[in-house]
TrEMBL record:
It comes from Aphis craccivora. Keywords: Nucleotidyltransferase, RNA-directed DNA polymerase, Transferase. This is Reverse transcriptase domain-containing protein. It comes from the Eukaryota. One of its GO terms (molecular function) is RNA-directed DNA polymerase activity. The lineage of its organism: Eukaryota, Metazoa, Ecdysozoa, Arthropoda, Hexapoda.
C-alpha cells in the first residue's frame, strides 16, 4: 500500500470494461482454488487487515513470553523494470512533427509522477482546502470524514492503543477541527481566539477519532470470532506460546483493550454475542457514536475540578491585589465592575482591551 506503487488510471472504452468484468467473473472460481488462504489482497472477504492482525498477534505474544521472532520481507515489485522506465521517461523533451516541420522541444509532466516532496505538497494542499473561505464548512467536514480520518486510522483494527496514543490522536484531530471551524471573536476579551474543544465538539457533531477506532477494533473482533477455526487470523488470535511469562506486569495486549472497552459498555460474554451479526453490529454502532469513554470522562472531570479550584484561587489573589492598590491609588469604576489603575506595578495591562490582566471585583 505504498504511494510509490500508484499508477495513473487510464480512460478505457466502456465495452472493454464490460468485457474485462465478464472475464474476471469467469476466472475467479478457478483462481480461488489455486491461490492459498495466505493471499488476502484483492480477494472477497479478505483484506490487508488480516495480515496486519496476524503479524501483530504473533509479535505481541512472542514478546509477552520473551521469545525471539524473525521476519522475512520480500519485495515483489519489479524494481529493475520500473527504474528503466523512469530513466527513459524522466528529464525527456518531446517534439511534434507535422509533415517536414518540427515543433520546439517541450517537456510533458502529465502521467509522470514527481515523487520528491509529494507528501509535503499533499499536506500543504490539504491545508489550503481547510483554510479556504470558498468551501463551506459542510464540505470540509466531508473531506475530513472521507479522506483525512480513513488515512489517519488505516489499520487501526490491529492497533493496541494506550492513553498516550489516544491523546496524540485527539490532539491531531482537534487541530484539524480548528482549521475547519476557524477562530471566533470573544466579546468578553475583545479579540479573536481559538475555539475550545467543547465548542469544536458541538460544531462538528462527530464522535472522536478514539471512539471510531474502538468501534473498528470491536468490529474486527467479531469478524475474527466468526471465522473458521483453521483460518489463519483465528489461529493467530487463539494461539498461545509455550513456556512461562517472565516476572512482572506484562505489556497491554490487543485483546485487553478491546475487552476493556466492551466491559465499559456492560458486555461480558462477548464471545457468544459476536456470533450474532445483528447484535454485534448494534454494539459497533454504539461504540463508534460514543462521545467519550467512562475512564476518559472521569479523568477529564478530575482535571476540570482542579482547574476550577486554581481559577478560584487566582481570582482571590487578584481581588486582594486590587483591594490593596485601591487603598492608595485611583481606580476606574464602571457600573459594578472595578478595575485597577494602569499605573499599578503589580498588574499588567492588556494593550488590546485596555483592561488590567486581573479579575474584576
Amino acid at each position: 500500500m505504498e504511494c510509490d506503487n500508484y499508477r495513473d488510471i487510464s480512460l478505457l472504452n466502456t465495452a472493454y470494461k464490460i468485457f474485462s468484468k465478464i472475464l474476471l467473473k469467469r476466472l475467479l472460481p478457478y483462481v480461488d482454488e489455486n491461490i492459498g488462504s495466505y493471499q488476502c489482497d484483492f480477494r472477497k472477504g479478505k483484506s490487508t487487515i488480516d495480515q496486519l492482525s496476524i503479524i501483530g498477534q504473533i509479535i505481541e505474544k512472542r514478546y509477552e513470553y520473551r521469545q525471539n521472532i524473525w521476519q522475512l520481507f520480500i519485495d515483489f515489485k519489479k524494481r529493475k523494470l520500473i527504474k528503466l522506465v523512469k530513466l527513459c521517461m524522466e528529464n525527456t523533451q518531446y517534439t511534434v512533427r507535422v509533415d517536414n516541420t518540427m515543433s520546439t522541444p517541450f517537456t510533458v509532466d502529465t502521467g509522470l509522477k514527481k515523487w520528491k516532496n509529494s507528501t509535503e505538497k499533499t499536506f500543504y494542499a490539504l491545508l489550503k482546502f481547510l483554510n479556504s473561505k470558498t468551501l463551506s464548512r459542510r464540505s470540509k467536514m466531508r473531506l475530513y470524514v472521507s479522506v483525512i480520518r480513513p488515512t489517519l486510522t488505516y489499520g487501526c483494527e490491529a492497533w493496541t492503543t494506550t492513553v498516550t496514543t489516544e491523546k496524540r490522536l485527539r490532539t491531531f484531530e482537534n487541530r484539524i477541527w480548528r482549521k475547519i471551524c476557524g477562530t471566533v471573536f470573544d466579546t468578553n476579551v475583545g479579540c479573536w481566539r481559538r475555539r475550545f474543544n467543547r465548542e469544536l465538539q458541538e460544531i462538528m457533531n462527530l464522535s472522536p477519532v478514539t471512539s471510531f477506532i474502538k468501534g473498528q477494533t470491536i468490529q474486527w473482533l467479531g469478524r475474527i470470532l466468526r471465522r473458521e477455526e483453521n483460518d489463519h487470523v483465528r489461529v493467530a488470535f487463539e494461539w498461545k506460546p509455550k513456556g512461562k511469562r517472565p516476572r512482572g506486569h506484562s505489556r497491554k495486549r490487543w485483546i485487553d483493550g478491546v475487552a476493556e472497552d466492551l466491559k465499559e459498555m456492560g458486555i461480558e460474554d462477548w464471545r457468544v454475542i459476536a456470533q450474532d451479526r445483528e447484535k454485534w453490529r448494534d454494539i459497533v454502532v454504539t461504540a463508534k457514536t460514543l462521545r467519550e469513554s467512562l475512564k476518559s470522562y472521569k479523568h477529564r472531570t478530575s482535571i476540570t475540578g482542579w482547574t476550577k479550584v486554581m481559577s478560584t484561587t487566582c481570582m482571590t489573589i487578584n481581588h486582594l491585589i486590587w483591594r490593596y492598590w485601591n487603598s492608595s491609588t485611583t481606580t476606574t469604576v464602571t457600573g459594578t465592575n472595578c478595575y485597577a489603575s494602569t499605573s499599578c506595578p503589580l498588574i499588567k495591562v492588556d494593550n488590546v482591551t485596555g483592561f488590567p490582566q486581573c479579575w474584576p471585583a
